[in-house]
Amino acid sequence: MSKLQQIIGFCSVICVLVSCTTSGSFAPVSDRYNPAERTPPYYIVSAGDTLFSIAWRYGFELQGLASANSLRPPYTIYPGQAILLQESSKSLVSKNASTNAVATSAPTPKSNNVKKERTTRPTAKGTAPLSSVNEGWQWPLNGPVVRPFVASGQEHKGIDIKGKMGEPVYASRSGEVVYAGSGLVGYGNLLILKHSDRFLSAYGHNRRIKVREGEKVKAGQLIAEVGDSGTDSVKLHFEVRIDGKPVDPLRLLPRR
């Protein structure tokens, strides 16, 4: 093989490699909500976890999850502890108790002897239709909805509202801050408000959170700034959950 043929062959290989790496094969950045396709039987607690954040991640109602694990207020959990991921129909807890006990480095209790109780999934019994509970909700951000709610699978459990970096985010309804942090994959800097024993709202991808856990807020109060944490564009991810289950926020928010 002549020297010229060797050079031509080498250039051909380089062209193929460049073509492969510029053909759009890079994995796009995307949001990941409730990343587990299937709920595992147990969750092993990490530092900074709360029982509330675990319940939110897997779509459980807090009191049912606490009851299944024989946990009482203030729901103290520890790194390395195994949390049984199911809900119990037996009420062991007070609905008015604090939900913000954070996992610390304290000695781990006997976590391998999690008591398994007869469990039931939440039912529609006693559940009022959304049309009867949609009063008092406000838009957390003035902007177009750029991604809708998807009820099936794990795709998208809320709506995305387009905004500008640093734009104010407002509480959609009066309530208590029960989570403020970045420990849930796919949400970035996340804020969760508890409005009642049944109703929760969440605000994700914030640049900055302006309130603290345990703080009481009023509807329309400034609670965060729009950002792009945990995602690839500037927007607010907004969720509403009833009894731990996601519902379409557009069915609650006033029509524009």
UniProtKB/TrEMBL annotation:
Molecular function (Gene Ontology), one example: metalloendopeptidase activity
Domain LysM: 41-85
Residues of the signal peptide: 1-27
Entry keyword Signal: yes
Protein name: LysM domain-containing protein
Keyword vocabulary terms for this entry: Signal
Sequence segments annotated as region (Disordered): 99-130
Pfam families hit by this protein: LysM, Peptidase_M23
Disulfide bond in keyword set: no
Highest taxon, organism lineage: Bacteria
Native organism taxonomy: Bacteria, Pseudomonadati, Pseudomonadota, Gammaproteobacteria, Cellvibrionales
Family statement: Belongs to the E.coli NlpD/Haemophilus LppB family.
Biased composition (Polar residues): 99-112
A single GO cellular-component term on record: cell division site
Gene3D superfamilies assigned: Glucose Permease (Domain IIA), LysM domain
UniProt-listed SMART domains: LysM (SM00257)
InterPro entries found in the cross-reference section: Cell_wall_metabolism_enzyme, Dup_hybrid_motif, LysM, LysM_dom_sf, M23ase_b-sheet_dom
Organism: Zhongshania aliphaticivorans
